[in-house]
């Protein structure tokens, strides 16, 4: 079973295996998803906010949290402003926006991997990179 990072205190919420929750979830501490969530899961921008989608757990919606651990399935975009860990059974069908990422062998992302640092730099970074390419590469 996947565990939360050490040193985190506070209460934890469990969506148990065999449970299906329909609707959005907002949380501020730890949440473990072993069941199915049909809706968005959004964590407050604090170090204590950790979403853990355990093996067999499913989220069908957008995920936004500082710290995210996936060892189950997410069908939607993932935004992790702190650390994102994709364990060996992780399956994400959507784009992944991350600050720091750790991917284990076997994890799958069907979508784009987007660094938040590059995303924040925006078009200015793309333009600067194109200016530094030789003319033949910039045209392609």
Strand percent estimate: over 45%
User: What does the overall shape look like?
Assistant: globular
Helical/strand content category: alpha/beta
Helix fraction?
10-25%
**How many DSSP E strands?**
15
Largest sheet: 9 strands, parallel
N to C succession of SSEs: EEEEEEEEEEEEEEEHH
- What is the radius of gyration computed over CA atoms, rounded to a whole number of angstroms? 17 Å
Q: What number is the mean pLDDT?
A: 87
Assembly type of the shown chains? single chain
DSSP helical segment count: 2
Key terms:
140 residues, 9-stranded parallel β-sheet, 6-stranded parallel β-sheet, 2 helices
Report on the structure:
The protein has 140 residues and is α/β, with parallel strands linked by helices. The chain has helices spanning 116-131, 135-139; strands spanning 12-15, 20-22, 25-27, 30-33, 36-38, 41-43, 50-53, 58-60, 63-70, 73-75, 78-86, 91-93, 96-103, 108-110, 113-115. The protein has two helices and 15 strands. The strands form two sheets. Strands 1, 3, 4, 6, 7, 9, 11, 13 and 15 form a nine-stranded parallel sheet that branches. A six-stranded parallel sheet has the order 2-5-8-10-12-14, with no helix packed on it. The radius of gyration is 17 Å and the shape is globular.
């Amino acid at each position: 079973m996947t565990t939360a990072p050490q040193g985190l205190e506070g209460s934890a919420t469990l969506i148990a295996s065999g449970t299906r929750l329909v609707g959005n979830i907002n949380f501020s501490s730890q949440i473990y998803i072993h069941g199915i969530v049909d809706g968005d899961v959004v964590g407050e921008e604090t170090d204590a906010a950790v979403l853990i989608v355990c093996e067999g757990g499913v989220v069908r919606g957008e995920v936004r949290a500082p710290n995210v651990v996936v060892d189950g399935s997410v069908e939607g975009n993932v935004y992790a402003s702190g650390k994102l860990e994709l364990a060996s059974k992780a399956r994400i069908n959507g784009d992944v926006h991350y600050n720091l990422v750790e991917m284990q062998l076997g994890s799958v992302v069907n979508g784009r991997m987007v660094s938040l640092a590059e995303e924040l730099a925006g078009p200015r970074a793309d333009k600067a990179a194109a200016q530094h390419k030789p003319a033949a590469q910039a045209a392609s």
